[in-house]
Amino acid sequence: MSGRHAGKAMLVTGAAGAIGFAASEILAREGARVMLVDIDAARLEERVRSLRDAGHEAVGHQADCADERATQGYAEAALRAFGQVDGFFNNAGVEGKLAPTHEYDVAEFDRVVGVNLRGMFLGLRYVLPDMVRRGAGAVVNTASIGSERGLAGACAYNAAKHGVVGLTRTAASEVAQKGVRVNCVMPGVIETPLLLDIVKQMFDDAAAGMRKLGEVATLNRVGQPREVGDVVSFLLSDEASYVNGAKWEIDGGALATIRNDL
């Protein structure tokens, strides 16, 4: 098998979703053996089958990434399947409902933070030890442009995604001298079912809403899941050997620039 990830074993959570599967597909196409993890067992089975049908080595593992025992379970399952994990895309997340902070449902806040922040911590907690023992490995966490800006109505999502950057930087500072790198990606407006759910809460016309959200990027369009997956693949590769503790915006320039045609 040839490719930048030939002979490597990769673990991807939230892998039945648009970004998670796009990354899984790219990693597999570039030679990796991939374990796909998701809470949606039926969708997960479809995703694994599609990779196998394309000739790739892929296995699935159903798990709730906000649950400690389940997280320990998928980490152990990956080691049983592959013997080691060379790269970990710690990606599972939920969008949550939109409401003003002073009206936000407490149970919904706990649910969103439980998946998007606690779940990220749990992934690091149970996948990093083997990498540290071996002195090799790379991790990419999924943050968001919501890690850098406020989005009205999304207090739980924004708070969690800000926290992901903190987790990334902390873990990166702890394991770098042990041969392990930890980075995060910050997707912007990416065309996914998750984004569509948010758009439907914000706009009466979902298609018009999607176009409007695309205008936050100087590229004047919504991004595609594969555009996130390509960056994830790079960060998990040896080509990114001097990249550590970084947050990579994949947002069409939304955070870094001011549009000059307004």
Provide an overview of this structure:
This protein has helices at residues 18-29, 41-53, 68-82, 106-134, 155-175, 193-202, 206-214, 225-235, and strands at 9-13, 33-38, 58-62, 87-90, 137-142, 180-187, 247-250. The protein has a seven-stranded parallel β-sheet with strand order 3-2-1-4-5-6-7, with helices on both faces. 46% of the residues lie in helices and 15% in strands. It is globular, with a radius of gyration of 18 Å. The mean pLDDT is 94. By secondary structure, it is an alpha/beta fold.
Number of domains: 2
CATH architecture assignment of the largest domain: 3-Layer(aba) Sandwich
Task: Give the CATH topology of the largest domain.
Answer: Rossmann fold
Q: Which regions are unreliable across 5 or more consecutive residues at pLDDT < 50?
A: none
Strand order of the largest sheet: 3-2-1-4-5-6-7
Average of per-residue pLDDT values: 94
Top-tier CATH class of the largest domain: Alpha Beta
User: Looking at the structure, what is the overall shape?
Assistant: globular
Which structural class do the helices and strands define? alpha/beta
Radius of gyration: 18 Å
Distance between the termini: 49 Å
